[in-house]
Amino acid sequence: MKIREATFVTGAVSMTGMPVDGLSEVAFVGRSNVGKSSLINMLLGRKNLARTSGTPGKTQEINFFLVNHALYFVDLPGFGYARASKRSRAKWRKTIANYVLERAPLKLVFQLIDSRHSPTELDKEVMLLLKESVAARIVLLTKGDKLSGNQRAKSVDRTREILKSFHTEIPVILTSSKTSRGKKETLNWVRTLV
Ligand code: GTP
Ligand code: MG
Question: For residue 1, is it within any domain?
């Protein structure tokens, strides 16, 4: 898939603020600071289209980026932000669950997990939640540039094991927004599934 054009369209805080044009959506889900916004920029070949930050909790709205006038990349707020209040975490759960389970145009969900660490309890919770979604799912391991070749292979293996234990054998791709590793493979899945 070739990216010709990408523009920010809108930030929604609930289902009511989302686009109504019916174009297909590809969502990026994962904990705060895992690298969702950076990965969207890398895939779209744009430096700062999605705002990134070293401080977790940067993306607070559900941001829609129109790609090639044909589909949306959707940047979701991160979960598991340590300093977030109980109430805001509960709200996150509800918003994301509603979105991934009930949003008709949603065709593909990329679940992002930090390649340096084993999936957390929250990551596993999201894996199970996404099993209920009718959208296709793929796991993207992020920040792969921080690992050695051996560690990268281990990271992919342990993620596959966990998915297998949940009876969900979906693709796992190791990525890096710094080196663009995994870009082609990830965009190929978008073309195939959307
Ligand atoms: P929230 O919006 O808070 O949910 O975070 P996010 O998941 O959108 O993360 P973001 O893209 O803002 O990146 C968080 C931090 O990780 C930033 O400091 C990025 O520079 C860094 N980062 C993201 N991707 C990579 C990567 O592939 N490699 C390296 N080395 N750093 C990365
Ligand atoms: Mg973000």
Answer: no
